[in-house]
Every structure is written in structure tokens, then in C-alpha cells.
Amino acid sequence: MLIKRRILTGAITGLALGLTSLPSLAQEVLRVGSYPANPPWENRNEAGDFEGFEVDIVNEIASRIGRTAEIEGYDFRALFVATASGRVDIVISSLTITDERLESQSFTQPYVEGAMGVGVRTGSEIDSLEDLRGIRIGTIATSFPEAWMNERAEEIGFASNNSYDSTASMLTDLMAGRIDAVVNDIVGLRYAFSQMNGLEVTHEIVTGERFAMMMPKDSPLLETVNDAISAMKEDGTMAEIFERWMGVAPAEDSLTVTPLPIPTPGNY
Q: What is the CATH number of the domain that holds 100?
């Protein structure tokens, strides 16, 4: 009877120790939110795994800070809710730093300077912003291109700006003629069009936007993650990842190789 009691006591003690260790195990995970159809930045492949430029970056960051990245897919607009609610620790999705976003979110230092592109059906005569007057366009809901175009709606004079939850839906409507042009990240558009027939990028819009990773406001991980990004820039890892996915080496003085501080409101 005494032996049975000792066995039972040992089992209970072991269970208690196991349960108390669970929080520390959970802290080893870096919860990542991502829009799953945004190649070459991030994309879910046929096997269901995430891959892409920012996927490699966030996996490297996780490794350097002693965590394992677990990536979950979200609609683009849901990414902002996920960070605001603390559901994720960090978001990757070619996100532009803006003063408005910095009011409710935190961002790491930028690592790529982006630009927007105008995508159309092959053979279209649209090849400038001026050609969008009276035209039906499409953008991704809550994206930087959507806001940028809407702020200039009167100046540009487009007929309508259809808002989409996914790039696939937007490009399907473009192919079907339900809209006449799309405005989105130019790298993503060119990558998507290389996999499709009948669409082309005819105009680049240089905006000076800067892409970074988004985190909950004043996240306790922000400085640690930003330091990891700086180290990746300094030791050449960031440049290697850039060349792997973009096909060219980054410029010597680009954001991809220049360590920067954490963005603050008023600077973007």
C-alpha cells in the first residue's frame, strides 16, 4: 500500500512539474501572422508550408532570438486585428510603415523600399496615372496602395476603386474585365504576372514606402527583433535572402543592408 502511495505521489508530482513547464515552452514560439498569397514575399506552397523572402527573414529572426516561428495565414485586413489583439507576435506581408499605423501598431526597422505598379490586361493603352482617369481600378482592402489611390481620387479621376480581400480575387476580376487596372506592390504584381498569361505591369509609381514587420504596440519583443534584423543586415544574411528571392543583389546603400532604428511617429 505504501509503494502504491509513493507511485501515485510521484505521478502527481511529475504531472504538476509538467504543467508548470508549459508556459516556458509556449514562450519559445514566435507567433507569426501572414497573408498567404503574396509571393515572393510570402506564400503557402502546394505542401501547405509558407515560403518566401519575409518567411526566410522571420525564421532567421526566430532562430537568433531562441524561438521557433509558427506562421498562420490571415486575410490582409485581419492582420491588423491579430496584432492589436495580441493574437500574434509579429506580422509579415510587405507592410508599409505609415504614421497612421504607428499610432496603434509598432514596426521594426524597414528592410526594403517598395513601389507600386499599375497592372492591366495585355494590350491595354493604360500606361500612366493620367490614363486611369475614368477607369475602374482595384486595390487590396486596407493596403497602402488603396489608401494612396483614394487620397488622390479627385486628382487622378478614376471612376471607381474596388476593394478586395485577396489578390487572387482582384486579378480574376481584372482578367474578366470587371475592372480595367489594378494598383499594388510592383514586386508582387510582376511575380504574379510571370505565372499568368494576359496581364502586364505598364507603369511604376515611386512612393518611397518602406516595408517592415508589424508588431503589437510597444511589444516587449520589439527591440530584440529589431536588433536581430540589424545583425542580419551587418553580417550579409539579409542580402543573401534578398538575392535568393528577388534574383538580384541589393544596392550597397539600400535599406536591405543598412541597420536602422525602430520607426517612430512623425518619421514616416
A: 3.40.190.10
